[in-house]
Amino acid sequence: MSYEWVKAFHVMSMVAWMAGMFYLPRLFVYHADAEPGSELSETLKIMERRLLRAIINPAMIATFVFGIWMLVLIPEFLSDGWFHVKLACLVLMTGFHGYMARWRREFAADANKRSARFYRIANEVPTVLLIIIVIMVIVKPFS
Q1: What pLDDT band is residue 143 in, cutting at 50, 70 and 90?
Q2: Alpha-carbon torsion (54, 56, 58, 59), positive or negative
Q3: Which is nearest to 126 in space by CA: 85, 98, 97, 101?
Q4: Predicted confidence band of residue 75 (pLDDT cuts 50, 70, 90)
Q5: Of the candidates 65, 66, 63, 70, which has an alpha carbon nearest to the alpha carbon of residue 16?
Q6: What is the C-alpha to C-alpha distance for residues 138 and 76, in angstroms, rounded to an integer?
Q7: Whose CA, among 2, 17, 41, 86, lies 20 to 30 Å from 101?
């Protein structure tokens, strides 16, 4: 498969991953204000689990697979400064993904201790990381 096709699938996977990364913390905002055991809380538990397992996790894995594939095709990226910044942001995004998976498990167990405000602020993390990643990939300021 050509580099352009692999890149296209990488971008599509990343868009799906980011959509979930933006939406899941919004669900947490609503869930933090819901009464544990209520119909709303139980509905949000189902939505959060399905979003993470059916969309966010597979999209993250596909993003990694296609990203690594691109590196196999063009290993020179590894020597570029912009790529190192992108990679650092990717590590942070993956860590944040892990935190959200943990928070989802806490909500599933009715053990959330964080406020809706916390999740509103946390919702900005993927946005900031995405902005940096896109600038690194498109502008390549440290080439």
Answers
A1: confident
A2: positive
A3: 97
A4: very high
A5: 63
A6: 16
A7: 86
